Structures are given as structure tokens and as C-alpha cells.
Amino acid sequence: MEGRNGTRSMQEQAAAVVREILGDYGKRRAIDRIENATEPSRDVIVHILHELFQIVYPGYYRDPDSSRRVYNVNASISTIVDDIIINLQEQIEQALFYTDEFHAKSGEEIRKESERIVIEFMRRIPRVREYLDTDLQATLDGDPAAYSKSEIILCYPGFYAITVFRLAHELYLLRVPMIPRIMTEHAHSKTGVDLHPGATVGKYFMIDHATGIVVGETTVIGEHVKVYQGVTIGALSTRGGQKLQGKKRHPTIEDNVTIYSGASILGGETVIGHDVVIGGNCFITSSVAPNTRVNVKNQEMVLGGGGKA
């Protein structure tokens, strides 16, 4: 059907667009799959994270309805744990199916492995909380603007990102694919902190101000390390692409190191020794000896004057 001026109607043009898009789906690329996705669900995993926060910080993160009734911690935690186990087991099962190790195995074998992993993960939560308690103390000790631990738990994006990382890291160690990255990328989107779940981070870790921080997969960070906004702990080069997978690409940061805003520390062979202070905007691609202060030489600031406005 043509319009008054002889052109095709909007309905016909829309139908043509649909045909073009459907035709594009036939190119058999990864983006062209049209069957229902069976990978882990980002929405479900974000919901699981919210429930994990209720376990990790029971007095701070609760179901809003719990404030309307007498709070029974035993009943509440039991219910939440059951829900996490059911949902996370299902998500892990879906993730394992796409790995080379489990793709050829039976559904029953994958189910049993996902059940084993989720129970082991839940058993590690007390240890995760032990580390988070030290991170909380480090943040309080290191930030004079923090007036209480409650303020840090409820308000600080850096501490939120660390909490998600600590949880995701345990799943990473249990060789769960995809789900740990979904967790940390959710935190990345909320806080600006790109903290890879594969990184190894010791106790008393503090991220001040958050935003723009990058910590790569093979980074190793010791204890009592403080990182400010805009810091990159990254790879020196990624031109090797997938050939670099599994290799040490990111720096090692030893104990009692402070890294100020805008600093970049790059390379798998780079070691920042203990008790080092890295000044703002430093660009480092080689190791730094312990007990060293690294600064960018001050640039001369010239102020003009004497002219009329």
C-alpha cells in the first residue's frame, strides 16, 4: 500500500526493517543467537549479591519488610542462605555447562559439581567477613572524614567494591566461570572501581574515594595497602591478546604501600616493595625498592599579572 505521495506506508517500511534484521541474524555470529540464553542471568546474580550483603552485614542490609516485624536473625539468615544456595547453584550449573571441562559431561555430573561449589562457597563466608573486618578498620583508620564504621559500610563506594570483590574472588578460586566477573562488573558500574576477581588482595585493604580505579587479574597486593582514586594497576601491554591468558601480566604490591591518585603501575615483572609511597600521577613500569618515596618532579607554575582586565 502506498501513501498519498506514492511512497510506501510506515507499516510497510517497518516490515522491511524487520526482514533486514532477521536476515542479519542468519550470519551465525555469536551475537546472532536467537534461542533463549542459558548462560547465567545478570539480574539473578545481582539479586544474589544483595542477599549476600544481608549475610555479610546483617545489621545494615535487610529485607525492607523485616523492619515491620520482630527480627529473628536465625530464621532470617536460614531463609536467605537457602535462597542463595538454590539460585546460585542454578547459575553455577549454567556457567559450568559452557566450559571445556564440563561441556561433554552429563547434566547430573554438572549438577553435582555446582552443588559442591555452592556449599563450599557458603562455608567460606566467615573467612570473607574476617578479611572485610580488617578492610573496614583500615578505612576508618585511614580516612579522617569517616566518622564511624556504619558510615563506611553504608556510604563508601570503595568499601562496597571491596566487599563484592571479596565474595567474587572466592568463586573465582573455585573456578566458577563468568559469575565472578558479572559480580565485579556490577560493582564497577556502581562505583567506578574495576577490581578483577582474579586479583589477590591481602588484609587491611583500603580504597579511598573510589572512581577510576583499575586492578588487573594477575595483580598481587599485600596487606595494609591504600589506593586512591584514578589509580591503575595494570598490564604493560596486551598486544599479545589471548596468548597472554594465564600469565603474570600485572604488578605485585607488597605490604604497607600507599598509591596516590592518578598513578599508573604497569607490568607483570614490576614489584613495588614494602613501605613505598607512590605520589600522584606517577607512571611506573619497573620495580621500586622498599622504603622508597616516588614523586613526579614539581612543574613550575607561572602566574601572569600586571595586565589590565
Characterise this structure.
The protein is an alpha/beta fold and 309 residues long. It has 2 domains: 39-192, serine acetyltransferase, domain 1, CATH 1.10.3130.10; 199-296, UDP N-Acetylglucosamine Acyltransferase, domain 1 (3 Solenoid), CATH 2.160.10. It is 41% helix and 11% strand. The protein has 8 helices and 14 strands. The chain has helices spanning 10-24, 42-56, 73-97, 107-123, 125-142, 149-155, 157-173, 179-191; strands at 193-195, 200-201, 206-208, 213-215, 220-221, 226-228, 232-234, 252-253, 258-259, 264-266, 271-272, 277-278, 283-284, 293-294. The strands form 3 sheets. It has a 5-stranded parallel β-sheet. It has a 5-stranded parallel β-sheet with strand order 3-6-9-12-14. Helix 5 (125-142) packs antiparallel against helix 7 (157-173). It is globular and about 70 Å long. The N and C termini lie far apart (68 Å). The relative contact order is 0.07.
Helix/strand layout:
Blueprint: H1 10-24, H2 42-56, H3 73-97, H4 107-123, H5 125-142, H6 149-155, H7 157-173, H8 179-191, E1 193-195, E2 200-201, E3 206-208, E4 213-215, E5 220-221, E6 226-228, E7 232-234, E8 252-253, E9 258-259, E10 264-266, E11 271-272, E12 277-278, E13 283-284, E14 293-294
Parallel strand pairs: 1-4, 2-5, 3-6, 4-7, 5-8, 6-9, 7-10, 8-11, 9-12, 10-13, 12-14
Helix pairs in contact: 2-3, 2-8, 3-4, 5-7, 7-8
Keywords:
alpha/beta, serine acetyltransferase, domain 1, 2 domains
**Top-tier CATH class of the largest domain:** Mainly Alpha
> Percent of residues in helical segments?
40-55%
Q: Count of DSSP helices?
A: 8
Q: What name does CATH use for the topology of the largest domain?
A: serine acetyltransferase, domain 1
What is the makeup of the main sheet?
5 strands, parallel
> What's the mean pLDDT score?
90
Strand content: 5-15%
Tell me the Rg in angstroms.
Answer: 25 Å
When the domains are counted, the total is 2
Q: Got a strand count?
A: 14
- The SSE order reads HHHHHHHHEEEEEEEEEEEEEE
Large-scale geometry: globular
Structural class: alpha/beta
| C-alpha end-to-end distance | 68 Å
CATH superfamily of the largest domain: serine acetyltransferase, domain 1
Strand order of the largest sheet: 1-4-7-10-13
CATH architectural name of the largest domain: Orthogonal Bundle
Low-confidence runs: none
